[in-house]
Each structure stands twice: as C-alpha cells, then as structure tokens.
C-alpha cells in the first residue's frame, strides 16, 4: 500500500476532479428527480456502479459543464464552502436548495489503494440518496428553473477572478432574493468523511411552494 | 412523584381541608409560557460581500409541450423557434430541442452577458436544428420483432448488452445532401417515433449520428435506410468496439 503525501501530487486538483465529476452527475440527477426539465431529455447511464439519469440536451449539458469548469479552481484551492443547486419558481424565488457543504482537511495523507474505492462508495451513497429524495420532498410548482450558487470562504468579490475562467461565461454576485427562503424545512440527506474531503448534503425546502 | 407529608398542629386555626387545598395548589406544575419566536436583530443574510456567486447566464429552458428551447431575457421568455415551426408542432413531438444557436449572439439570449454584438445578417437566419430526441411508442416499438439471427449472433459474440447504446452513422456517401437527409429525419421524428433514439448532425464532419439501444438498432437502421432512401452501407458502431455491423 502506497501512502501519498501533499508533495506527491496536487491534492487540491485531485479533490476538485473527483468533486466536479460527482457534482455534474448530482446536478443532472437533481434536475431529473425534481422534474425541472422534461424527462424525455434524460437518458439512463451508469456511474459509481449505480444507474443515474443524465441529460442528453447539448445546451443544458454545456451549461452545467461550464458552471463546474468555473467552480473547479475554487474547489482546488479550498475556497468553495458550499455549492448550492437552487430550484426556483417562475418568479425566481427559491423553492428548494440542494446544499453541498465541502470541507477539505488541512493535512492530507492518503493511501492510493483506499482512495478510489472508498470515495466512490461514499459518493455512490450520495447519488442513491438524491435519486430517492423526491419521497421526502413536496412537488415543485410548474415552470421551475435552476441556478448554481457558490458560497466562498472569503469575500465573493475576491474570488471573482478565479471563477472567470471561461470568457463568455461571466459570474456575478447573487441577489438576496435568490438566496433567501421563507420558512425553510431542512432535510439532511447524506454526509461523508474521507481522507481527502468531507461533504454533507442537505435540502432546504420552502414550506409553501405554491 | 414522591409522597408529600403535611405536618400541622391539630389545634391550628386553619382547618385541615384548607391546608390540603393549599398544598395541592402548591404542588401543581408551574405554568409554562412558550418563549416568543426568536427573530435575530441582525439580517439573516449577511452583508452583501458574503453573498454567493452564480453564473450570470441563466440555465436553458426547455418547453415540454413543443420541446422549444427558450432562453431568458430579463423576465421574459424568448423562443428560439420560429412561429412556422410552432405551427406544425404535434403533441407527439415531445422534446425536440435545439442546440445553442451560434447564429444568435449570446447577448440576445442572456440577460447580463457583457458581449454586445451588432445585429448582422446572420442574426436573422432561421435556427438550424441539429439535435433531436425521438418519442417512445411509435410504430416500430409496437411492431417489434425479435432480432435477426445474424444480429443476434453478433450481440452474443461481442457480449453486448441489449440496452447498450449504439450509433448509426450516415455520411455523405449514403446521400448527396446530408442537410436534406437531416431535414427528412427531423420530419419523420414526428410521425415515426423511433424507440430509444436521439440524433444529431455533425455539420463539420457532414455526418448524422443516430443513437439507439442495441435492442432496436437493427430495426432503426433498416428504417433509416428505407425512409431516408440511403445509398451504400450505413455502419453501426458501439463504444470501444467501433463498427460492428453494416446495412
């Protein structure tokens, strides 16, 4: 068993790669489960050895990829505290927020044998929880859309430059309206602790959705 | 509750009954006042600099009824499909959507994009559809027959899963005009309902890719060949193996 230390490879990059790959699958699945998009644009695929629904709509896929491509540098530098998938109603008020809270341990020492299999098992559990979360959530009103919010550890304006990695995909500070939710109901879904990353996922659901 | 012992002088002025009554009152539980709902004096969302960040561009919207791709402009929804296309839309045409229209500048489809292109001739060109999803339940599905012996043997040899995705490739060698075939294919989407299919046109390669499950790939291939009157051979490929079958 080989033990890797921070000097051996860029841990931030490894974590960012793993998390962004996971977040992409998770976002697709959330959009499918919460019926933000018509089910016809989704196809069944396999990830982490479990079935997942992935969009096959090129523009939506591009949007998600661009978003995560921009988020990656923040995760790499451990600047992203939360990545939130917000489902909004027609008036752009949030009805559900899927909050991925991310934390990386300051000292990293991992075994390569353990890394992939263990992390994959943990991420699989997240995916399975997302796929059944509609059982504990109320139906969303029709005409919902979504956005991705990134809460940074430092002031958002300081991280603006890091996130502007795609020229035609600018980022802005979110409006308070997009962040605030009236009387949210908190539904914890899953948490994980591994050598390289700690993460927890919970849903904030608006009490009155209609 | 433990027993309570009441000591009293037999000759006291206050009678036993009133003493008992007084004791019972004392032993009653204290009334609980529910605390008022806590409302912090500070704003629940911290000051502006701690607000999260988000992409300026809004996520694409896809209309389930007609599969029309729309984008937001301020608070209004802008359809990228022409009215003529709306008119011949059928209920069966679920989820026919379109790729990003490179002919329309981003500033037209997003609310806060900083790019401002002057309107050019190309901006007014109609949208070129380059992506389709076929609905389930078409006639092919209804008249489904088992796989041919040849194809069944192929599936066994390559150990293919019946729901594995496969790709038919239509090239310029199969037709004179790929765009014309693509338009025919788009039209036939509405009437045929090829099961498990989605298709896209690779304009830079002058190819049409039709994806479907291995289970239906043979029928889909025959349908494509007959319906689109393709010449030559079209090839079926699967991931990792490459071309495995031709028609």
TrEMBL record, chain A:
List, alphabetically, the Gene3D superfamilies matched.
HORMA domain
Gene Ontology CC terms: nucleus; zeta DNA polymerase complex
Q: What is its main location?
A: nucleus
GO biological-process terms attached to the record: DNA damage response
Write out the entry's keywords from A to Z. Answer: DNA damage, Nucleus
Cellular compartments annotated: Nucleus
A Pfam family this chain is assigned to: HORMA
Supply the InterPro entries for this chain: HORMA_dom, HORMA_dom_sf, Mad2-like
Please name the SUPFAM superfamilies in this protein's record: The spindle assembly checkpoint protein mad2
- Coiled-coil regions, chain positions: none
Domain annotation HORMA: ranges: 13-203
Q: What is this protein called?
A: Mitotic spindle assembly checkpoint protein MAD2B
Source organism per entry reads Crenichthys baileyi (White River springfish)
* Record gene name: MAD2L2
Automatic annotation (TrEMBL), chain B:
Transmembrane ranges, per UniProt, are none
Q: Which InterPro entries match?
A: Shieldin_RINN1
Give the record's GO biological process terms. negative regulation of double-strand break repair via homologous recombination; positive regulation of double-strand break repair via nonhomologous end joining; positive regulation of isotype switching
Superkingdom of origin organism: Eukaryota
Residues in coiled coil: none
Region described as Disordered: spans on this chain:
105-124
Compositional bias (Polar residues): 106-115
Q: Which PANTHER family match?
A: SHIELDIN COMPLEX SUBUNIT 3
Give the protein's recorded name: Shieldin complex subunit 3
